[in-house]
Amino acid sequence: MNNFSYTFTHAVTRKPCAAVTQGLRATDTGTPNHERFLEHHTDYIAALESTGAQVTVLDPLDEFPDSVFVEDAALCLPEGAISMRPGAPSRLGESAVMAPVLAGFYDKVVPIQGPGFIDGGDILVTDREILVGASSRTNSAGVEELREIVGQWGYTVRELQTPEGVLHFKTDCSLLDENTILSTKRLAASGCFDSYTVIHVADGEEPCANSIRFNDLVVMPDGFPKTEMAVQKAGYTVRKVGNSEAAKLDGGMSCLSLRFSPPTR
Ligand code: CIR
């Protein structure tokens, strides 16, 4: 396996803290149940570990209610890690907590210094480019700073628009392999994936667009049978994980981990 955008030796996760009940949400559909969230989180870690990856599980961090959503604090590439600058004021400090963890794996952890903002959830890395959706959390200044950093490593960054009312770019899409993207129809309609093969999420099943390809598995939230069948039919092995509690906070499968293969040193 050598496709860096979906084969990984490592993942970092953080257990949901008790204060996760206070996490950010666009619409209040109920308070997440902490116990159930922990159960789902344990299942999620087991799914990642079942592929042979080494999964780091960080302690809960009550000072940051949304800290279970580790993806937003960093971007991990083979060349180095980049510490993000999250656009929600209550989450800004999460990257400073994540950076030393990543320094355990990487020689280089480069910070986005601002004034722009950028969340990891708005970044989709494929084998040929890095797509970033401007959103309520990510602005063009943040994208530009990312472009400067990863440009030195040979990456091309394409700035796109996250659909109105959608939290993050990857709320609506996932990479399934180097050429295939699972996407909501509303996002794919913008033409942003025209050079890729697109599998559309079934109507009414939009929340499962936030899935992840992790080694041999596509990890999907439970409860979206039509899309699950379409993904299976396309030849992928699907592993379902409960996501009812994270979904109350607009979170899905990608948000719960940083996935990477650190350089050997
Ligand atoms: C937030 O609003 O920031 C959290 N409640 C959810 C973050 C989800 N993260 C992601 O999509 N990468």
- What would the principal axes of the Cα set say about the shape? globular
Q: Largest sheet, if any?
A: 3 strands, mixed
Tell me the fraction of residues in β-strands, as a range.
15-25%
Indicate how many domains the architecture comprises.
1
Bound molecules: citrulline
Question: What helical percentage do the residues reach?
Answer: 10-25%
Helices and strands, with pairings:
Layout lengths: L9 E5 L19 H16 L4 E5 L15 E4 L2 E4 L10 H10 L5 E3 L11 E3 L4 E5 L5 H12 L5 E5 L11 E5 L2 E4 L1 H4 L8 E4 L11 E3 L2 E5 L3 H9 L3 E5 L2 H4 L10 E3 L5
Parallel strand pairs: 1-2, 4-5, 7-8, 10-11, 13-14
Antiparallel strand pairs: 1-15, 3-4, 6-7, 9-10, 12-13
Bound molecules: citrulline (CIR).
Describe what you observe in this structure.
21% of the residues lie in helices and 24% in strands. The protein is an alpha/beta fold and 265 residues long. The structure holds citrulline (CIR). Residues 23-25, 66, 69, 71-72, 88, 91, 121, 167-168, 171, 249-251, 254-255 line the site of citrulline (CIR).
Summarize the structure.
The chain is an alpha/beta fold and 265 residues long. The protein is built from 6 helices and 15 strands. Residues 23-25, 66, 69, 71-72, 88, 91, 121, 167-168, 171, 249-251, 254-255 line the site of citrulline.
Can you tag this structure with a few keywords?
single chain; 265 residues; 15 strands; globular; binds citrulline
